[in-house]
Every structure is written in structure tokens, then in C-alpha cells.
């Protein structure tokens, strides 16, 4: 058994396995590596229920816990997925939003389990990294968007 040194742990009311399988189907370099059943009854479940799910999202090791209603997700944690094209941006955005998720602003959306995602084209990240006037123009354009439109960002940063 190879246990990673650092793993992101996500608390789910229930549905950790469904979420992990959705992520594995949606994002490259993602997989479900183990499903662990509860060895005995616990406060929010019974022996034999799915207790934890080990998975990776875009190569990042994660552990999902079906822990009940004690904790909920917030935008304080999100996955940021970098994209290289509008097609890729649209595909991830649609996969999340059209699976009972919801849109937000500035490239953010939330999946049906309450996990926040930033679907971020590299052109935006690179423009922000340059700083100065170019970053300001990219940032101002982004503030008007829900899903990021790469052509609009490119137009905003054109010299």
C-alpha cells in the first residue's frame, strides 16, 4: 500500500464515491483507487456502508469521507483546473454545471456535492502573472464573466 505524504481530505454528507467517480470520468489523470467500507456502525452510518473513497483529481491525491451533516463545503476550498482552449473550458464547465451544479462568477462553479471549481484558461493565469496594465485588463474582463471566454480575455490583453 502506497499512502501519499499529503492528501486532500473532503468531507461529504454522503456520495463521496459518486463524486469521486464523476471526477475520474471528467478530468484527465483522475481515478478512483479504493473504496473502503465502515468496519462497524458509526454516527452517520452502518457497518458495510461506504466510509471513505481514495481518488485523484488531475493527479492530486484525495480522500472522500462520508461523514454526515456535521460539516459542509464552502468556497474557501476549490479545485483550480487549468485549460488550454475554449473547448476544454466549455467541456469541464458543462460537465459540472449540467450535472446539477451551479454557475458562479469569474470562472467559478460548484458541483452537485458542493465542491467549488475554478475552470481557468491559462491565458488568464499568464496575463495575471505578467502584472501591470495587462493584468488589469485581463482581470477587469474576467470580472464580467461567469464561464471564462478566452477570446474576450485575448481581446482585452491585446497590445
β-strand amount: 25-35%
**What's the SSE pattern?**
EHEEEEHEEEHHH
The CATH superfamily of the largest domain bears the name 2,3-Dihydroxybiphenyl 1,2-Dioxygenase, domain 1
The number of distinct β-strands equals 8
Low-confidence stretches: none
Distance between the termini: 53 Å
So, CATH architecture of the largest domain? Roll
Rg, Å, rounded: 18 Å
Molecular shape:
elongated
Question: Could you say how many structural domains there are in total?
Answer: 2
Helical/strand content category: alpha/beta
User: What does the largest sheet look like?
Assistant: 4 strands, mixed
Question: How is this fold's topology laid out?
Answer:
Blueprint: E1 8-12, H1 16-26, E2 31-37, E3 50-57, E4 60-66, E5 78-83, H2 86-97, E6 102-103, E7 108-110, E8 116-121, H3 122-130, H4 132-142, H5 150-157
Parallel strand pairs: 1-4, 5-8
Antiparallel strand pairs: 2-3, 3-4, 6-7, 7-8
Amino acid at each position: 500500500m502506497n499512502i501519499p505524504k499529503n492528501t486532500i481530505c473532503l468531507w461529504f454528507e454522503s456520495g463521496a464515491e459518486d463524486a469521486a467517480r464523476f471526477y475520474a470520468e471528467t478530468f484527465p489523470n483522475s481515478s478512483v483507487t479504493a473504496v473502503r467500507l465502515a468496519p462497524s456502525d458509526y454516527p452517520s452510518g452502518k457497518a458495510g456502508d461506504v466510509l471513505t473513497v481514495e481518488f485523484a483529481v488531475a493527479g492530486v491525491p484525495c480522500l472522500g469521507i462520508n461523514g454526515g451533516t456535521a460539516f459542509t463545503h464552502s468556497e474557501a476550498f476549490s479545485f483550480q483546473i487549468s485549460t488550454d482552449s475554449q473547448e476544454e473550458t466549455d467541456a469541464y464547465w458543462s460537465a459540472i454545471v449540467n450535472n446539477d451544479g451551479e454557475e458562479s462568477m469569474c470562472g467559478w462553479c460548484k458541483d452537485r456535492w458542493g465542491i467549488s471549481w475554478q475552470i481557468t484558461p491559462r491565458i488568464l493565469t499568464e496575463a495575471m502573472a505578467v502584472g501591470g496594465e495587462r493584468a488589469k485588463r485581463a482581470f477587469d474582463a474576467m470580472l464580467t464573466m461567469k464561464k471564462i471566454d478566452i477570446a474576450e480575455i485575448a481581446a482585452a490583453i491585446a497590445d
